[in-house]
């Protein structure tokens, strides 16, 4: 199984020093690439919403929004939905290898803001089949 | 015994079949099923694809229409029954007797299952539903002990399905109005308890608060396992004592009971969790598939393997598992 190692402390402290706008630009670029590969096509319910992703062990907080079916970096410090977890847990969610409720029960995934929007995002990602390059075989644990 | 898996999306349905489910249960994106969550469930096109996929593998699709039609809106529920028939579902899972009449009269050859939401806890209730509507299977409420399940199984010719894993419900199956006190919505009228629009989580200094329509229903200490934000699993002060007043957040786990359930004549084991991800479905179903195969092969030598237990415990709500009412000692 592909697993992210725990990041070294140096990287985490670097993350905290990088300007948030710089991070958000790169993060959003990643989402846009995924969208152009026809993988992450946001549903209409995400339109106009602002999101914050906090990667706890890297000290990163990325802000972005969904406008005209596309992801853009957001300059607004406020978000409608904020999710927070470690890099490894976010990665396993993205791979479709981990259940979001399981992480939540174990207090490894934090959600704040609009819970219904959170559920919408979770169910959208769950229903989205992972591309082969990202896919993890569920049963190889 | 047949293994019946939950699916909230086509991806979960595929994961369930790949992991060895004999049947998958699913519902439409509306109030006709008891997991009516934002972004969850199937469009008719998805069901069509799902049914084709399952049938190609020789497996079944069970169509859950397990809420109670609301006054003046009966047609929505009838439309769901029509959809189940037209899309080629192998059975419909119904709770409401009125809807049973419609399904039975309109589609006499369609297989009917009585949902757990129908709350039939004894053989007379089950036999009445068989005589009236020719139901083929009943999903037993999670309030029954093993002895009671055994007695019911002996007294009816209807197939018995019991829950084998998943979150527990506060033993008022199908008729629970608890969440409507706080939010106006309940499983019966909206297909949800604790609708997400009324739920707010806030964490300060590691302490996590769960609020339902502004009402504090639980407060978790730093690192303490969390649960779904339902009133029944909240902690309240009752007569000076602060604790779970109605039910503790736990997951049912019947791994240890599989050979006994099979010996009683139980026909199917159901897994809860249409709201969970394909990863959950795949891992839980693969584990139960291995366990049921082992129980079928050599029931007398059956032992629960530690890796099965670990795999299921990982996904438990509140991170604890219990045999539920199956072994409730006070009963």
UniProtKB/TrEMBL annotation, chain A:
SCP2 domain boundaries: 45-126
Pathway(s) per entry: Cofactor biosynthesis; ubiquinone biosynthesis
Entry keyword set: Ubiquinone biosynthesis
Ligase in keyword set: no
Highest taxon listed in the record's lineage: Bacteria
Protein function: Required for O(2)-independent ubiquinone (coenzyme Q) biosynthesis. Likely functions as an accessory factor.
Family of this protein: Belongs to the UbiT family.
Protein name: Ubiquinone biosynthesis accessory factor UbiT
């Amino acid at each position: 199984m592909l697993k992210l190692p725990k990041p070294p402390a140096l990287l985490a402290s670097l993350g905290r020093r990088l300007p948030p706008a710089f991070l958000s630009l790169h993060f959003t670029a990643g989402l846009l690439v995924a969208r152009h590969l026809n993988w992450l096509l946001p549903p209409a319910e995400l339109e106009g919403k602002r999101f914050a992703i906090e990667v706890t062990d890297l000290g990163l907080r990325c802000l972005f929004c969904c406008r005209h079916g596309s992801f853009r970096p957001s300059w607004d410090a406020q978000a409608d939905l904020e999710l927070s977890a470690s890099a490894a847990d976010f990665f396993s969610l993205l791979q479709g290898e981990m259940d979001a409720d399981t992480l939540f029960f174990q207090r490894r995934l934090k959600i704040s803001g609009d819970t219904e929007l959170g559920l919408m995002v979770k169910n959208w990602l769950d229903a989205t089949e992972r591309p082969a390059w990202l896919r993890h075989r569920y049963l190889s644990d | 015994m047949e293994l019946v898996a939950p699916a909230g999306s086509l991806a979960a349905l595929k994961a369930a079949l790949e992991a060895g489910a004999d049947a998958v249960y699913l519902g439409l994106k509306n109030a006709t099923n008891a997991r009516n969550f934002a972004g969850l469930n199937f469009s008719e096109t998805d069901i069509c694809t799902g049914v084709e996929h399952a049938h190609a593998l020789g497996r079944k699709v069970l169509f859950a229409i397990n809420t109670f039609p609301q006054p003046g809106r009966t047609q929505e529920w009838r439309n769901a029954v029509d959809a189940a028939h037209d899309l080629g579902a192998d059975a419909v899972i119904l709770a409401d007797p009125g809807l049973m009449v419609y399904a039975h009269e309109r589609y006499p050859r369609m297989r009917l299952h009585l949902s757990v939401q129908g709350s039939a806890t004894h053989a007379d209730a089950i036999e009445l539903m068989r005589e009236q509507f020719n139901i083929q299977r009943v999903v037993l409420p999670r309030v029954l002990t093993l002895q009671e399940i055994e007695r019911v199984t002996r007294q009816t010719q209807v197939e018995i399905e019991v829950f084998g894993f998943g979150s527990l419900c506060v033993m008022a199956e199908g008729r629970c109005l608890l969440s409507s006190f706080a939010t106006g919505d309940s499983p019966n009228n909206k297909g949800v308890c604790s609708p997400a629009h009324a739920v707010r989580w806030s964490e300060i200094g590691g302490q996590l608060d769960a609020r339902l329509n502004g009402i504090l229903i639980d407060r978790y200490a730093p690192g303490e396992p969390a649960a779904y934000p339902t009133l029944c699993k909240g902690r309240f002060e009752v007569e000076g004592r602060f604790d779970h007043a109605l039910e503790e957040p736990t997951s049912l786990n019947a791994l240890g009971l599989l050979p006994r359930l099979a010996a009683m004549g139980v026909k199917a084991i159901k897994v809860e969790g249409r709201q969970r991800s394909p990863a959950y479905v795949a891992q839980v179903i693969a584990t139960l598939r291995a366990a049921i195969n082992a129980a079928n092969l050599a029931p007398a030598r059956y032992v629960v393997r530690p890796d099965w237990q670990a795999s299921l415990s990982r996904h438990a709500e509140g991170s604890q598992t219990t045999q539920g009412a199956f072994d409730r000692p006070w009963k």
